[in-house]
Fold this sequence. Notes:
By secondary structure, this protein is an alpha+beta fold. It has 15 helices and eleven strands. It has two domains: 2-207, Cytochrome Bc1 Complex, Chain A, domain 1; 226-416, CATH 3.30.830.10. The chain has helices at residues 44-51, 61-70, 95-108, 113-131, 134-146, 160-165, 168-178, 194-204, 252-262, 269-277, 308-325, 329-346, 350-363, 370-378, 382-392; strands spanning 2-6, 12-17, 23-30, 74-79, 84-91, 184-190, 226-230, 236-243, 281-290, 295-303, 399-404. A hairpin with a 4-residue loop joins strand 9 and strand 10 (295-303).
Amino acid sequence: MFRKDTLANGIRVVSETLPKSRSVSIGVWVKVGSRHEPAALGGVSHFIEHMFFKGTEKRTAKDIAIEMDSLGGEMNAFTSQEATTFYVKVLDEHLPKAIDLLADILLSSRFAPAEMEKERKVILEEIKGVEDSPDDYIHELFTGTVWHDNALGRPILGTKDTIKALTHKDLLAYIESYYSPKEIVISAAGNFNHDRMVAMLNASFGMFSRPGIAKEEPPPSFMRAVLVKKKQLEQVQVCLGCKGLNYTHEDRYAISALNAVLGGSMSSRLFQEVREQSALAYSIYSYITFHRDIGLFTVYAGTDPSNALEVVKIVMRELRKIKEEGITPAEESRVKNQLKGNLVLSLESSNSHMSRIARQEMYFGKHLTVDEIIKGVEKVTAEQVQQLARQLFTREGISLTILGPLSKEDLPESVLEI
């Protein structure tokens, strides 16, 4: 059963009760992320996320960890471009303790300057870890290429320079500006009584007030470019892609079907052509990124430097082919079943339910049932998928980013012809 309520201070609460579950997942979703940061404060949202776990007025960082472990639960957080999320998963009997712990870290964290300096070092190591992982770093380079003029193109972690420059005052001012009730959604899923949970939330989260200020979300413009970042690696990392769709677009199911056919699984065209038939790569896939007002469609491959150009040519050939010929009836049937199966199987945990209803509230402002989503998938047609491919895969709209021991001169101008 889905329920929606509003706390005394305006925080929205959405829940889905799962009577057969023995767990509860509860998350606090703050609708501010890296895309809302000024360039000089790059990484501040992620830094704040870390600091909330560094001790409160009544718990040390070690106390927080020990208490969660003693419940046999899981507590974590993550920062994305458009939200910062804190969540707990526990046995249903421990929901009151989970709420108390979440409220304590989010409303009573000390943000001790000494802890901030220690965490600054941790985040700088985290940034180094991404830069030392080419198959992660390439995606960051790609978004920075296509959205170079916008915060969406900047790394969520920030850069070494911005992290070194962030001050204690910066973090506290950012919380004061954006961590307001109107920007918060609390989501819960599992075995619990909704009304009792809302009463507990009102006694904690419902008691704080903060006016906050309006966020800025300027939409980025997509830049067509070819970027080659030379680095001595055993493999060349390739990201190739184009504009996608926003989170609520009417063709969101069609682009999911397009992604599934092209590179979303082992039966996809790119996996079969690049890996199985040509043996040019171990890892080859496509994925879609949704944001409030824009999105990306991206293809990734890791391959030997001598094969990089051939891999790009095959990818472009497959994009061209789906534009000109569309998808087959067999593919249409298969990807619909694949998407429906993935949806249903993903909902076998309370965490998945909690995340799904939170995102629906943030982006749609309403609840979409599983049956409604399945009906949306079933309505997708082969013609709709082909029309979307024609719209997205254009000569002016494809960008390419490469990381590895190549030079831009190794790529002819015609490589992105479609």
